[in-house]
């Protein structure tokens, strides 16, 4: 028995933040330079009263339309923006989606590698006969973690949710994985305060990076140069490992989709790994970096635009906060 991705849908919040709006807020910000450098023109941002759980619900309802929701017997939600410490958002989501109660559900906390890890979890549950039809959800609202005066991260990240229905199948549609972790880099993409080690500090002082970006220890911090070094080191290796484990080559694959970190990074990686441009997808222009949702959003856009078709084999690779990375090959 195998695992097959049956359906993919995604949901973007209605509010849009454009580069032109950022230019109005920050005097030294140039809308065109942002787009030219990182390939992003706009991104969708949640309202104050809108959460990752709301996005997950909307994306799930889109995916369950026309699908017998009574078949869903496991729900997995990847998010780093939960509504509550406890209970898990997946339990609340089961109720809101009116799914049956003899169903497994859990959240897991990963960022940009989340979709690949979610597929690995789903495949394991299907192969062990614990589940037959899984609703896998990626939902993220990094905008809530970013300081309003942090122009760099506000230009990169957008909010979104994406869902995939994964079923047990006679044909294999999710192949061998290569996964990796290196916690030595945890401080390079982090929200220092707000957890149980360092509580949210209402009096946290402003930290100015000297380039017009201000944050506090309560906000998301990203060390861009160190994250770039990590990606340059890890992504080529995981691509080689996935190809080796699946006894295939880039020439034998139909398409390659990386986590949509930013246009500069993924184009650099494409050239370094020597992936043909006509086999490589970039779709940050209107969404920005949507963290764990970026790969399924890209897959759905490729399907809708007939860039990939049924039966195609696609290499997918996620990488980011943790450090965490992973890759696999899927057949649509």
Number of domains: 2
Strand order, largest beta sheet: 1-7-6-4-5
Shape: globular
What is the count of β-strands? Answer: 15
Structural class: alpha+beta
Which stretches of 5+ consecutive residues score pLDDT under 50?
none
Textual characterization of the structure:
The protein has 332 residues and is an alpha+beta fold. It has two domains: 2-170, Thiolase/Chalcone synthase (Peroxisomal Thiolase, Chain A, domain 1); 176-331, Thiolase/Chalcone synthase (Peroxisomal Thiolase, Chain A, domain 1), CATH 3.40.47. It is 30% helix and 24% strand. The protein is built from nine helices and 15 strands. The strands form five sheets. A five-stranded mixed beta sheet has the order 1-7-6-4-5, with helices on both faces. Helix 1 crosses helix 2 and helix 7 (224-245) packs across helix 8 (263-273). The chain is globular.
Entry keywords:
332 residues, alpha+beta, Peroxisomal Thiolase, Chain A, domain 1, 2 domains, five-stranded mixed sheet, four-stranded mixed sheet, 9 helices, globular
Concise structural overview:
The protein is an alpha+beta fold.
Task: Give me the secondary-structure topology.
Elements: E1 2-11, E2 16-18, H1 19-25, H2 31-38, E3 42-44, H3 52-64, E4 74-78, H4 89-96, E5 104-108, H5 114-127, E6 133-140, H6 151-156, E7 160-169, E8 174-181, E9 189-190, E10 207-208, E11 214-215, E12 221-222, H7 224-245, E13 255-258, H8 263-273, H9 294-304, E14 313-320, E15 324-331
Helix pairs in contact: 1-2, 7-8
